[in-house]
Amino acid sequence: MTPPTPSAAAPLEVTDETEKKSITSDGSKGSESRSPGRLAWKRFKRDRTGVISAYVVIFFFVIGIAAPLIAKLYGKNPYTTYTTQHPELLNAFSYPAGPNGGMSSEFWFGIEPQLGRDVFTFLLYAIRNSLGIATAAALLTTVLGVVIGVTAGYLGGKTDYLVSRIIDILLSFPSTLFFIAFMPVVFGFFVAPDDNIPTSLRATALILVLSAFGWASIARLLRGQVLGLREREFVEAAKVTGASPMRVVFKELLPNLWTPIIIQSTLLLPAFVTAEAGLAFLGVGMIDPTPDWGVMIGRGAQFYTEDITFMLFPGISMVIFVLAFNLLGDSVRDALDPKSKR
Amino acid sequence: MSNTNPLLDVSGLTKHFPIKGGFPIKRTVGAVQAVDGLDFQVAEGESLGLVGESGCGKSTTGRLITRLLEPTGGKITYRGQDITHANRRQLAPIRSEIQMIFQDPYASLNPRQTVGKIVAGPMEINDINPAGGRENRVRELLEIVGLNPEHYNRFPHEFSGGQRQRIGVARALALEPKLIVADEPVSALDVSIQAQVVNLLQKVQRELGIAFVFIAHDLAIVRHFSQRVAVMYLGKIVEIADREDLYDNPRHPYTRALLSAVPEATVEAEPRERIRLVGDVPSPINPPSGCRFRTRCWKATEKCASEAPPLVQADGNKPGHLTACHYPEVRDAVPAPRLAKDPEAAA
Ligand SMILES: Nc1ncnc2c1ncn2[C@@H]1O[C@H](COP(=O)(O)OP(=O)(O)OP(=O)(O)O)[C@@H](O)[C@H]1O
Ligand code: SF4
Ligand SMILES: [Mg+2]
After folding, report:
1. Test site for ligand 2: of B252, B326, B330, B338, most ligand atoms within 8 A of the Cβ
2. Does A30 score more than 60 pLDDT?
3. Min CA distance, A228 vs chain B (Å)?
4. What are B140's strand-pairing partners?
5. Ligand 3 is a single-atom ion; what residues have CB below 5 A from it?
6. Which residues in chain B are contacts of A237 at CB distance < 8 A?
7. What is the pTM of this model?
8. B residues 78-117 near A, CB within 8 Å?
């Protein structure tokens, strides 16, 4: 195993893109060595569901990252209301004139009712924005959780007591309710009530609030793990040879915490994707015209009785993503921890 | 042997673990008296055996010497330097000289590090760059402990318990220590492998002249390994003597009981009567008054309950043979009626 970079950020790449990367990058020198990571990777490769899910998840991330490129090749953008120039695309009730929500060779996924934006690019950018926010929140949450949890567990005593009480309080919060009530307050923090809130600020605030409430569960888990690990004899062995607390944490403890960290972050990301969409849907997250899964579903909900097609694209793509990611998470968990049979 | 320039000098060493309790505000409600006033010395190159039943404070003693634990009281002197309360920085210069081998070969090696990393770790931490490089030195060490140096890149889970313990020995040797605390280094191993590892330690001790504090829970292993033996009971040393003295002439009833459980080394030796200790070791939270062994001792009297016997040279003991008992056993004397006597032996 190679965790030589003593950086708390190292585990975080893991949530990003695919678990694959982090596990293969173990790159042990000796070809004959069977590192725990290598063994896990071997187990993972045998898991058909996991591999397929991984491809689906990668596909979504690639789409998200390449959205501007794809949109450019495709020749449209998510903001232009194409019906201003081509009013014939909408019928008298402002619904797409063509069948299936106006799907055509020109507008692959049809056009949006009323405003007449291009659904395909809108969806591309929605995936990009939603995954971006959820990934950033998951990364930040993991960093916070790991740093706080490991610190509390390792230091113990008063620090641990204090942190544990904060975690208890945070976990007893009805966080969804809190988000709805509190997001406007957070925005008000940065911007005068009447001003427009810039998109980047919305995104940042969302990431911060999601992380502020998300770290507690990871921290609690890691604290427990560290409490167990720091009594292990190999930690004492390191101390006997004079290892500094830093070295103990980064070289002895962290490498043994990859598994729970990866598992927790694979649980976090889909949870944040749905939470972020939920907030947007409720109007306290990202808002129209920013492309976003939640925004799109919110728009679709306004006219799904008349035109179900528009609703289907964000709905189905999101379900596929979350499902694939959860299945992937399960496979990763099984691969890392073969003893836990669900 | 015992008094010439001790490498390690321990006096009055005490460790009490506070017990927290109470609601809603936690406070100290008592203490586990894990180690309570130990005095002993270890000379250079000498091996001291530390023996006692489970829970009598052997590991705690080992961890105090290696300063993994902070002593509650007493004094630890290493080569004339007081290290009782030295912090990590102050300890740095002598860190490399006191090393430890652990009981559990499965818990004592980091499962995420290769053998190479594990053995090189101590050198990395102490910034030691041996001639020829660390990797070479690691291979050398692996060879010394009887492992294939080509297994450098393997992970602990690819080794057996005995091999893992050898890795632990290699790690302890990496810093060329003067003193190794071995905490029951073989009790987690198969009997067939125990001897191999003990032989390895013996070789290491002789060839490299390393002093050992060898912790064990029975007297059988220590007999082959240690020149001097201390017997512990409930946080106190009850008897300490050179090996031959202790085995030939045990003066403390507890030592005698422990010895009676050790198989005879020679066939001709007349069989010892077996003494089976009844009852459990009392709790170290609330140890018996006076002599701590009195609840299981067949000779206990009023005096034993009221007065703690000091660790002194009893009548007829050789110098350096100390016993903490008001009524030391006498060799070959028919023991007084024994409550704790083995019923089978009586029949
Ligand atoms: N960290 C701790 N906190 C509280 N009590 C402890 C702690 N460590 C050890 N003890 C107690 O101190 C006593 C002595 O423990 P120790 O581990 O030294 O025994 P031991 O002789 O090594 O036993 P064993 O043969 O089982 O290893 C035990 O009663 C144990 O419960
Ligand atoms: S002092 Fe008394 S109780 Fe203790 S060992 Fe000696 S005879 Fe037994
Ligand atoms: Mg022990």
Report:
1. B326
2. no
3. 11
4. none
5. B 59
6. 100, 102, 108-109, 168, 171
7. 0.80
8. 88, 91-92, 95-96, 98-100, 102-104, 107-114
Instruction: Determine the distance separating the centroid of ligand 1 and the alpha carbon of B236, expressed in angstroms.
Output: 13
What pLDDT does A125 receive?
93
Considering only CA atoms, which residue is closest to atom 6 of ligand 1? B17
Domain positions in chain A are 119-340
pLDDT digits (tens, 9 = 90+) for A158-182: 999 999 999 999 999 887 788 888 8
Q: Token match 């020149």: residue?
A: B227
pLDDT tens digits for A324-342? Answer: 999 999 999 888 876 654 4
Predicted pLDDT of residue B324: 94
Of the candidates A174, A148, A183, which has an alpha carbon nearest to the alpha carbon of residue A279?
A183
So what's the architecture of A119-340 in CATH?
Orthogonal Bundle (1.10)
> In sequence order, what are the residues at sequence separation of 6 or more whose Cβ sits closer than 8 angstroms to the Cβ of residue B257?
B275, B276, B277, B340
User: What is the CATH superfamily name and number for domain B8-97+177-250?
Assistant: P-loop containing nucleotide triphosphate hydrolases (3.40.50.300)
* Arithmetic mean of pLDDT, B211-226: 90
Q: Which bound ligand lies closest to the C-alpha atom of B60?
A: 1
Tell me whether strands B211-216 and B47-51 are parallel, antiparallel or unpaired: parallel
Q: Provide the pLDDT confidence category of residue A24 given band limits of 50, 70 and 90.
A: very low
SS3 assignment for chain A:
CCCCCCCCCHHHHHCCCCHHHHHHCCCCCCCCCCCHHHHHHHHHHHCHHHHHHHHHHHHHHHHHHHHHHHHHHHCCCCCCCHHHCCHHHECCCCCECCHHHHCCCCCCCCECCCCCCEHHHHHHHHHHHHHHHHHHHHHHHHHHHHHHHHHHHHHCHHHHHHHHHHHHHHHHCCHHHHHHHHHHHHHHHHCCCCCCCCHHHHHHHHHHHHHHHHHHHHHHHHHHHHHHHCCCHHHHHHHHCCCCHHHHHHHHHHHHCHHHHHHHHHHHHHHHHHHHHHHHHCCCCCCCCCCCHHHHHHHHHHCCCCCHHHHHHHHHHHHHHHHHHHHHHHHHHHHHCCCCCC
pLDDT at B2: 44
The more confident residue out of A304 and B59 is: B59
Is residue A67 scored above 80 in pLDDT? Answer: yes
The answer to whether A252 contacts B110, with C-beta atoms less than 8 Å apart, is yes
Cis-peptide into A11, omega within 30 deg: no
ipTM of the complex: 0.85
Contact A32 B112 (CB under 8 A): no
- Percent of chain B scoring above 70 in pLDDT: 91
Residues touching ligand 1 (Cβ under 6 Å) are B 17, 32, 34, 52, 54-60, 217, 284
B258-314 pLDDT, tens per residue? 888 776 655 555 556 677 777 888 899 989 999 999 999 988 899 999 999 999 998
* Distance between CA atoms of residues A274 and A158, nearest Å: 36
